[in-house]
Amino acid sequence: MRWIRAAGRGLLVLVVVLTGYVASGARADDTATGGRGPLTLATAGDLTGYLGRLLEGWNRTHPDERVTLVELPDSADETRAQMATDLRGDQRGRFDVLNIDVNWTSEFAAAGWIRPLPRDRFPLGTFLPPVVDTATYDGRLYAVPYVTNAGLLLYRADILEREGLDPPRTWADLEEMAGTVAPKYGLDGYAGQFLPYEGLTVNAAEAVYSAGGTILGGEGERVTVDSAAAREGIGFLARGVREGWIPEEALTYKEEESKRAFQSGRLLFLRNWPYAYVGASAEGSPVAGRIGAVPLPGPDGPGTSVLGGSNLAVSSHARHPDSAARLITYLTSERVQRQVLTRGALPPVRAGLYEDPELVRRFPYLPTLRESVLTAAPRPKSARYDQVSLVVQAVVHDALTGRHTPEAAVRRLARELDAITR
Ligand code: GLC
């Protein structure tokens, strides 16, 4: 038996030696090839379940630079918190490439968590113009646009047709139809994403922007929210809950819950991102063939959507920065961007795809979406965006539950935002 133990010891030595060899080999490789090797890609919940398959294409052709997908929760705030925990500190974390929400670029860059990228390495000129700005901070490129997004109003076309009505263009139209037509059919009127998380910040900002207001001015250092427009915007949402044409249940909705309510035929109108329109139109959906999408309404005509989407960034501690950049080039190539739309139901950042006749035939909402993206308003660019958003969520939720009047909510918003930006 002694030989087994001896062999075991020998094996151990061999393993140690080999591990040391591989480790130093990898280090040598890093410098020799500019940092090529395996990667991890962290992303928020993949709501359409396409990204793993899409990365298989890369893994097949790049066996030495394989990427492992790490899927985080589908609430933007929880994803941000997990990424921040991973990136904070001097130690290398688990994540090399990060699919970050467009509004996190400033915070992550200012904190030194992600590294600046050379502009000439990526096809920035082929992207829709507003998305490139979300990837820059302090005049430098810190990420590469990957997916864009703009809110749309989904509606039950079958019901409006039966009533001889056009889809709403103004808040008054929406309120009227949500309040009177929906109950006639046993439906709830209108919902968006009203749980306190990033989605509520988005919905509140859209209401404020649509009424002509703003939340922060300049580069996010001036508080501009104390205005009649902000009161009107928050008042619109609060009135909906008070009058019942926004169901109370909507105060618990994120993207997925609100999509399910609409897709199962319980809602007349839904504010959501285009992926929800694609899902609700797909074969097997109870409302397939019976829905439409238009730009978000505002007080006197079309309103303003918030610019959504995500950018690909490279962690400052990335193990293989060259491979990280190569993966980003792959994911933003025209071929893969097309798959982002056809397989992921997500809006690509490549401008040309919105005018591709074959894609427009398959995704008839593309021209509306393009307009909505081009006219969408970005969220405030602030290195303290996370705190700004937390304040907006908390205060607006209190206005929706009736704890505050819209006037009091706007005053409190101004006060609390002032404390953050000061
Ligand atoms: C979507 C958008 C993103 C936004 C989030 C809010 O994922 O693309 O920008 O922050 O929804 O829930």
TrEMBL record:
<feature type="signal peptide">
    <location>
        <begin position="1"/>
        <end position="28"/>
    </location>
</feature>
<keyword id="KW-0732">Signal</keyword>
<dbReference type="Pfam" id="PF01547">
    <property type="entry name" value="SBP_bac_1"/>
</dbReference>
<comment type="similarity">
    <text>Belongs to the bacterial solute-binding protein 1 family.</text>
</comment>
<dbReference type="InterPro" id="IPR050490">
    <property type="entry name" value="Bact_solute-bd_prot1"/>
</dbReference>
<keyword id="KW-0813">Transport</keyword>
<protein>
    <submittedName>
        <fullName>ABC transporter substrate-binding protein</fullName>
    </submittedName>
</protein>
<dbReference type="InterPro" id="IPR006059">
    <property type="entry name" value="SBP"/>
</dbReference>
